[in-house]
Amino acid sequence: MRALFLSLAIGMLGSAAAQAPAPAPVPPGPAITVATHYFYWYQWPSEHFARPDAPGPDGHCHQFPAPEQVSYLSVDWHAENLAAMGDCGIDAALPVYWGAPGAYDLPPLAFSRRGLPPMVAALDRLAAAGTPAPRLGLMYDTTTLANAVRGVQPADGKADLTTPAGRALFCGTVVEYFAAIPDRHWARHRGGVLVVLYVSAFAAKWDRELGATLRRAFQQRFPGERVCLVADASWGDIGQDLTTRWGAALWGPSLHPGVAQIGPGYDDRVVPGRHSPVREREDGAFYAHSWQRALRHRPELVLLETWNEMHEGSELCATRETGTAYLEATRAFVARLRAGDDPGPPVPLRWPEPRPRPQLGWGEEAADAVEVAADYAAGTRRGLREIAQDDGAPEVRDGTLRPRRDGRGGGSFLYFQVSDHFVFDTAADFVLEVVHDAVAPLQVEYDSRDRRQPLGGAYTPSRPGLKRREGPWVVETFLLRGARFANRQNGGADLRLVLPWRTGAIRSVRLWRMR
Fold first, then answer.
1. DSSP 399
2. Label partner for 153 (CA 20 to 30 A): which of 231, 254, 302, 406?
3. What does 89-132 look like in DSSP terms, one character per residue?
4. Is the separation of the CB atoms in 291 and 333 below 8 Å?
5. pTM (2 decimals)?
6. Cβ atoms of residues 402 and 392 within 8 Å
7. In angstroms, what CA-CA distances link 131 with 182, 332, 335, 501?
8. Rounded to an integer, what distance in angstroms lies between the CA atom of residue 37 and that of residue 58?
9. Considering only CA atoms, which of 343, 342, 330 is closest in space to residue 90?
10. d(CA 402, CA 412)
């Protein structure tokens, strides 16, 4: 049964294509490249296998067919994965790289450098045997731009990529990675080595010259060579060649000019402390649906998210639970991509959106409450709590909640989570009352079911209500129409206060359902 829907979906697409008229010729352009993110940080039984965040028989996380043979130091393991990619028609493996210059020997990062020689040896073995295999690009996991990951001070700081030191770290990471790989194994797109950047959240600052700076550094080390830089959309304009966005395995296909990033599903319930929504695979229907979107987009670069990120349930590789079903599907879809086939009739989804998960580990007192509130003057919270995020670091001071402004972070937002014992994944109208000092104009964005709003309604602007003075304080109400409160904002939050000037003091916040 596990491959049934995949085979049916592929067959349906093929039948439709056979009956449909031939698609219009595709204008000449860059050659198509299919790449996938290769997580090679596993080593049985200790590295990324320790329970509870490891593959195991818990119904949430798929298992490798032979976990005891999995190791980033094993030539055999790399050869097995790379040969499977090649058999699917994948052109580029993107090793998810945590190698930060100056921190190569730190235990959490050491796999990145130690795993490269066996990977290269595996490619040499496959080449000698005439076995198709991808070449190696780079998935630069920018998590290493956070000081704590590299083991430098201040621990809560981030690399400033506008400074010489920050740019040396950024460029050095890319250059030294490719220096460890013979150029015969470099993956290229548009004539340059393929470099894909993870999200920007772990950098303090950057500018539009970052891409040009990287290209100069690369040419200085490798004269005559070029870089094809693919940046996550969170970076904005840094002079990249192409843009993508991480998260397609959860949120659905990410389509940008020339690029389609897709995945088969997402489930990170085995990772402690996470409360992400779940993207059901639906026996392959979501993957087929995503490939249809990609085929219709006619991209020059397809990013498959991911080859083997087992902890987040986004893997395409063979597993005990799915066998080789997703390998077979990938092979068929890649062939259709290269042939320019029609995507066929839409594959239906039972769950068009990710399925949110309740967080029931706190706020039990709100189960039968009329309202939830956080009163910072009184020092009490009942079913409503603040959530710290990179773009919204709060602090409680002088009986108020404020955005932190001490040089260690901060941002323009104050995030709040509503107890799921009070309400969860609903469709109702609420009133939010905020008592504040009115230093900054206050706005509210909340999780709603209005799909016209950002991220499917997760950041819906509220409608302003009443406003009155109580001594030095302003009491302001906001109408939250069609609220969903499914923990879909950053950090699992349900609403956030927007403080454009990064200043202001919040005395209390109350929320109740409209009668």
1. T
2. 231
3. T--EEEEEE---TT-TTSTTTHHHHHTHHHHHHHHHHHHHHT--
4. yes
5. 0.78
6. no
7. 18, 19, 18, 58
8. 25
9. 330
10. 10
* pLDDT one digit per residue (tens) for the chain, 515 residues: 444 456 545 554 544 444 433 333 444 456 999 999 999 999 999 999 855 444 443 445 789 999 999 999 999 999 999 999 999 999 999 999 999 999 999 999 999 999 999 999 999 999 999 999 999 999 999 999 999 999 999 988 999 999 999 999 999 999 999 999 999 999 999 999 999 999 998 999 999 999 999 999 999 999 999 999 999 999 999 999 999 999 999 999 999 999 999 999 999 888 877 778 899 999 999 999 999 999 999 999 999 999 999 999 999 999 999 999 999 999 999 999 999 999 999 999 999 988 888 888 899 999 999 999 999 999 999 999 999 987 888 999 999 999 886 544 446 799 999 999 999 999 999 999 999 998 878 899 999 999 889 888 999 999 888 999 999 999 999 999 999 999 989 888 999 999 877 788 999 999 999 97
User: In angstroms, rounded to a whole number, what is the distance separating the alpha carbons of residues 352 and 350?
Assistant: 6
How far is the first Cα of the chain from the last one, in angstroms, to the nearest whole number?
Answer: 48
Q: DSSP character for 135? A: E
Q: Which residue in this structure is represented by tokens 């995945």?
A: 263
C-alpha to C-alpha distance for 181 and 185, rounded to whole angstroms: 7
* Distance separating alpha carbons of residues 444 and 211, to the nearest angstrom: 35
Reported as half-sphere exposure (CB side, CA atoms, 13 A), residue 476 has a value of 18
**Which tokens is 21 given?**
């008229």
| Element spanning 308, H or E | none
* Phi, psi torsion values for 482, nearest 5 degrees: 60, 40
From CA 515, how far away is CA 509, in angstroms rounded? 19
Distance CA 413, CA 502 (A): 8
Q: Could you give the domains of the chain?
A: 4-11+32-339 (3.20.20.80), 364-513 (2.60.120)
Quick one: which of 165, 227, 168, 222 has its CA closest to 196? 227
Measured between alpha carbons, how far is 484 from 223 in angstroms, rounded to an integer?
55
Alpha carbon separation from 300 to 49, 241, 243 (Å, rounded):
36, 12, 12
Radius of gyration of the chain (CA): 25
Question: How many beta carbons lie within 10 A of that of residue 172, not counting itself?
Answer: 17
**H helix or E strand, kind and range, residue 62:** none
At what angle are helices 4-19 and 325-339 packed, to 10 degrees? 20
Alpha carbon 314 to its chain's center: 11
Relative orientation angle of helices 285-297 and 4-19, to the nearest 10 degrees: 30
